[in-house]
């Protein structure tokens, strides 16, 4: 009698039903803890290094949009103080020059943006300024693409179209060696 | 007769859930493989600023990260409080950048090397001096594709 009982017990399987729960628990833990981090940012192409100082005397003054940022994070745009919020519109107007004013760029092709900062400038301010300048170009490209091809400028556009737009409004942003008045340590 | 009674006697067998854990484990392993744990633990406090004109970096293997920021509380005794550079998981100086770039480069096939991007993860509060030094070093090392890592800004700009 006892013998049959033990044989019965041996035939019993271990209940694997709760195994799923345990695995689920682990699964949920991993789902919650992992963040699929994607990196976004402002893509920039730096100019190659050269030991000689670039010669800027050849440029006409009307074509140069100079932006200075000092150690107190204040902006001086073409000799006048400005707030970052106004920068984008102002830069767009300068580059496109819709009213053909004599003190703004002859054409978008000639426009050059010159950005100079101090070593004491906050990175946040610098990036905000850079963002606005890039934004100005992005919006101009968008407008031109909309006018020509009826769609906003994007990386999905055919290469030839993108090249045509960038040929029309090339983004020339030159960064001068920063001044050193207010670096903190 | 016996046949019928036999059939009725067997209650319909429960669906075996024994393979369920296997399926779940498979999912679990999938997630464990796919998720990349942060490869280097940050010794600096880096709070990237926000911007609007963002580009997504797609191929992760082609990106190397340069962190700039102030050391976190627990590392302040060792490294001080002024902004430092972190490459991989080590606090470094600007002079270590060329070697760091080279170490990343040799792992990649030749054809892809021109598309390497350096992602600068810089704290918003840091001043431009140290960032400028990094940029100059990158230019000298001929690593010209860089990315100023930033978050998405939703609202209007304040200043």
TrEMBL record, chain A:
Membrane topology field: Single-pass membrane protein; Single-pass type II membrane protein
Record GO cellular component, one term: plasma membrane
Keyword Flavoprotein: no
Organism, as annotated: Neolewinella aurantiaca
InterPro entries on file: ExbD
Location in the cell: Cell membrane
Gene Ontology molecular function: any one: transmembrane transporter activity
The protein's name in its UniProt record: Biopolymer transporter ExbD
Pfam families on file: ExbD (PF02472)
Keywords, in A-Z order: Cell membrane, Membrane, Protein transport, Transmembrane, Transmembrane helix, Transport
Family: Belongs to the ExbD/TolR family.
One Gene Ontology term from the biological process aspect of the record: protein transport
The keyword Transport is assigned to this record: yes
From TrEMBL, chain B:
Predominant subcellular localization, coarse grouping: membrane
Any Gene Ontology CC annotation: plasma membrane
Pfam families hit by this protein: ExbD
Any one GO molecular function term: transmembrane transporter activity
Transmembrane residue ranges: 20-37
Keywords: Cell membrane, Membrane, Protein transport, Transmembrane, Transmembrane helix, Transport
Membrane topology classification: Single-pass membrane protein; Single-pass type II membrane protein
GO biological process, one term: protein transport
Protein name listed in UniProt: Biopolymer transporter ExbD
Organism: Neolewinella aurantiaca
């Amino acid at each position: 009698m006892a013998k049959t009982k033990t044989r019965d017990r041996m035939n019993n399987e271990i209940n694997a039903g709760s195994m799923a729960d345990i695995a689920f628990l682990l699964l949920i833990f991993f789902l919650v803890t992992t963040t699929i981090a994607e990196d976004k940012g402002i893509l920039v192409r730096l100019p190659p290094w050269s030991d000689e100082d670039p010669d800027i005397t050849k440029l006409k003054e009307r074509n140069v949009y100079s932006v200075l940022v000092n150690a107190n994070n204040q902006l001086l745009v073409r000799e006048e103080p400005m707030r970052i919020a106004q920068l984008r519109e102002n830069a767009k107007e300068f580059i496109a020059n819709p009213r053909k004013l004599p003190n703004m760029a002859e054409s978008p092709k000639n426009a050059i943006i010159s950005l100079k900062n101090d070593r004491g400038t906050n990175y946040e301010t610098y990036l905000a300024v850079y963002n606005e300048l890039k934004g100005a170009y992005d919006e101009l490209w968008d407008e031109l693409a909309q006018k020509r091809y009826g769609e906003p400028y994007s990386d999905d556009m055919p290469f030839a179209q993108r090249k045509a737009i960038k040929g029309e409004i090339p983004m020339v942003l030159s960064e001068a060696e920063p001044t050193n008045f207010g670096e903190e340590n | 007769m016996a046949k019928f009674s036999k059939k009725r006697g067997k209650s319909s067998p429960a669906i075996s859930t024994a393979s369920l854990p296997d399926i779940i484990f498979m999912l679990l392993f999938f997630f464990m493989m796919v998720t990349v744990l942060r490869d280097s633990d940050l010794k600096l406090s880096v709070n990237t600023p926000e911007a609007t004109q963002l580009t997504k970096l797609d191929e992760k293997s082609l990106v190397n990260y340069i962190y700039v920021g102030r050391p976190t509380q627990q590392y302040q005794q060792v490294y001080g409080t002024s902004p430092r550079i972190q490459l991989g998981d080590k606090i470094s100086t600007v002079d270590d950048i060329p070697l760091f770039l080279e170490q990343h480069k040799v792992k990649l096939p030749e054809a892809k090397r021109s598309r390497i991007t350096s992602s600068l993860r810089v704290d918003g509060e840091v001043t431009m001096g140290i960032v400028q030094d990094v940029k100059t070093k990158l230019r000298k090392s001929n690593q010209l594709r860089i990315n100023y890592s930033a978050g998405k800004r939703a609202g209007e700009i304040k200043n």
